[in-house]
Request: fold
Amino acid sequence: MPVAFGRIVKSAAATFAALTLASVLGGCASVYNQPLNEPSANPFGGIVRPAEAAESGTPGAPGLRSDTVIGLAFSGGGTRAAAFAYGVLDRMAQTPTAKHGQLLDHIGVISGVSGGSIMAAYYGLKGPAALADFRARYLTQDLMSQLNTSLSLGNISRALGGGANTDTALRDWFNTHLFHGATFGSLIGKRPVTIINATDIYNRTPFLFSPQTFAAACSDIAQYPLAAAVAASSAVPGAFAPVVIETYPEQCQTPLPAWVTAAANNVDAPPLLRAYARGMTDIRSGRVKYVKLLDGGLVDNLGLSGITIIRAGQTTPYGPLTPQEAVNMRRLMFLVVDAGQGPKGDWSTTLEGPAGKDLVSAVVDVLVDANSQTSYTAFEATMKAWREHIVTWRCGLKAGEVSRLRGRGGPWNCRDLKFTIARISFDQLGPERARALSAVPTSFTLPADTVDALSRAGGDALSANPAFQRFLSEM
Reply:
């Protein structure tokens, strides 16, 4: 869930009074961010691999080197989510496998949204080394003290004018403590493929920080700061002004992928895919000059929609895998690490309510959770269909083609392909512990003992997950 702006809103009465006065002044205050992306005549910057890699939406990414692959999606939830995700990765690092090396070596893709994007981006940049210092560099730091969070007329007026904060303080803090000026160019050619998700608030769709999305804007993602993408993914409405991506449609001739044009014009295309494709075509056409981005949790707090979109846009049964990867893969485990909160508040036990800030919170929770449930259902259907398409394709190959793609001969079962989705969440740890963890507020700053409790919970929830244990035994 997006980081709550609760430190500004102390009570419904105080808020109403402040808003009434601030609305008079709001027309004088305009808060906005400057775009950081630059125009490019060659948006891919020469990083595209052969045709099958360009199709995947992850140009420059190396091929998978194992028949066993792990995917990760880290949910939103501020530092609560980042600490929970950290605990999952840390437990994976401590989990031995019989003959497949380190478990972390099998991570092929990692997707993050809002608070989860902080852990995803840092791990994507540093790999397993990120686990050595993420707690000290982020989890136990006081980021909130660097932001405008007090209940004041000035902050309320700024919030009405676009946002109480620009992205500058947040982006600078991320750079100082985590990213040190790194751009997406630092992720090119590395595994895992890292997907940072924000929300395009005009098109009301996920915004993927990907080469294809930036190419639509005639801009090179390799030059875009990681800290800015994470700030966009975490930009809570009201607390932050939207992060801005400027489009330069006149600057390049790079064609949109064929699937984008086809989906945008196909009224029968899946709604999520068509909306995303139409957003891409609007960017390229110049109808959208400035893309405005807010917290990715607004449209999908689990970070799964981006992966669904990437798969839905493929024109082969196996994409975004290469043919070699699709023939050699045997097991794919996708872990959805969900640090979302359960229902909260006591108004369900009384005739009155919710009212004031409880009403606003309840409405936001309904929207965020409903979108997340929809994205999870769509992701499950996508993964099931993808597995079936790969098996059908594999079983239709001739023996000589199989040997060529495998790089060796010998026995091979075309149907030996298993996809598993496992949700790692608080509710797998027992009612009492789950209630305590769910009560942790959505904030950028938490006490050190709470951070450690969340990290332990992430590891324990992973170890206790039956699907994960079956996956280990099959390895």
About this structure: Confidence is low (pLDDT under 50) at residues 1-26, 48-60. The longest strand covers residues 193-200. The longest helix spans residues 356-395.
